[in-house]
Amino acid sequence: MLDTKYLLTDEQMIHFITKGYLVLTNDLPEQLHRRVMDKIYYVLHEEGNPGNNILPRVPEIQQFFDTPTVKGALTSVLGPDYYMHPHRHCHYNRPGSQTPGGGQWHKDGYWSSMRSHRPWWAMIFYYTQDITEEMGPTAIMPGTQYYEKFLGDRGETLLPTGKAGTMVLVHFDLWHKASLNVSEFDRYMLKFQFTRLREPENASWNHQSPDFPVPDGLPAQHPNLWQDVWEWLRAAVPESAKKEQPVQSPQELGELVSEASETDALNASYTLGRMGKEGIAELAALLSAGTHLTAERAAYGLQAAGSEAVPALLELLAHQDERRRGLAAFVLGMIGPGASLSVQQLIERLQDGSSWVRRNAVEALGMIREPVEQVVPALTEALLNSLQEETNDAPQAGSMYVSQQSYIKNKIGYTAALSLLRTGKDGDPKQVVQALEQALSSGDRYVRAYAAEALSHLRTEEAIDVLVRYCRTSRWCSDTSKASTF
Q1: How many helices and strands in the chain, by DSSP H and E?
Q2: Packing angle between helix 250-257 and helix 262-273, nearest 10 degrees?
Q3: Average pLDDT estimate for 349-374
Q4: Alpha carbons 119 and 115: distance in angstroms, whole number
Q5: Segment 180-224, tens digit of pLDDT
Q6: Model-level pTM?
Q7: How far apart are CA 324 and CA 341, in angstroms?
Q8: For a surface tag, which of 14, 167, 266, 370 has the fewest beta carbons within 10 Å of its beta carbon?
């Protein structure tokens, strides 16, 4: 069992919520870091970057993520049953290898149908050697995780440094980039991604006080957005309204949601989400009839409204525009178990003509979870249908993501497998195992990875048998390379 002293403090959690990162250090032997670096050097120069196979190729890396420091930090942010995502990468920065100024500022490609302000996902940048600014550590821009647009010169650039074992835990959507290595040394950074499997049921860190003191040095103030994340992580009942009423009316705040300034727009959206019925009505109208950008911003405000917003969202599930239907499904998923009354309508959306709407409905069902006797059969059917489409080589007509997230080939199957990882253990084991066994033959590598992990979560005799047979044929031999003799 994890010693609670390794869990984060309130101050660290508030820093993560507002600034989007934490710098931590693993206390591990220098020899281990050196051994890993030597192996990585060999692999990169003799075989090329192994990408997702970096862990089985250099299995000692797993020791970095099994320490109480890492487990305590990830448990605090993502809950005790977080999952290491199958996408991993070793970033190799040679001396002078980057263009002047380093790489381009960016957010990583995301894995859900939409980015979430709430921490369903996180990343760790792990350094295997002492890292200085001259060696080109990954640059981050604190406080930018909630912005779709890059802040440019208005943002602060930070280059985290430290001893071997230094790691930067970041909100998945934090803006970051490679920086220029002006030293004489190679720089290695391991990027691993993690996802939470269920919404918080209690505060999973060393939580002491419900207060939320805002730290200094932030590029912008988002009190209601931060409060929403804080209350959600604490599993607290969200406040429907502040004691002091906002100066603006719902209509005036609604106009701000459409403003070019993301700071003003997000503040207005989350303020409306905490105003009760009047705020919900304004946000629902914006989601229904506003521009696409305005509708997305309104969706974030509606998630902050919680279960009170469910009736309005059920109406939006029937909207004639696929984007609005999909956003309504997304918000219902973000509301979680409090949106259980929407399960039947979400199941009906699995027959929607838009694959983006279907995908949002699949993800929402996995987050709402209950009633499991309805949710799990619907998810297994969605998974099997997506696999059939792979077999038929049928395009996912109507999808708004035809050219996006190309790294996910079967987007609905991927999402259904992830949702079954979150819920399958509570369903009919035989039904779930049969679907997951077929998913192990998917043409999408991430569908296969989620299916294998879901089988390991089930722990039934049949699930273990399927998983063992799969592992026998998919085993990776880390000693086999172009240089090996047999």
Answers
A1: 19, 7
A2: 140
A3: 96
A4: 10
A5: 889 888 899 999 999 999 999 999 999 999 999 888 777 778 999
A6: 0.93
A7: 19
A8: 370
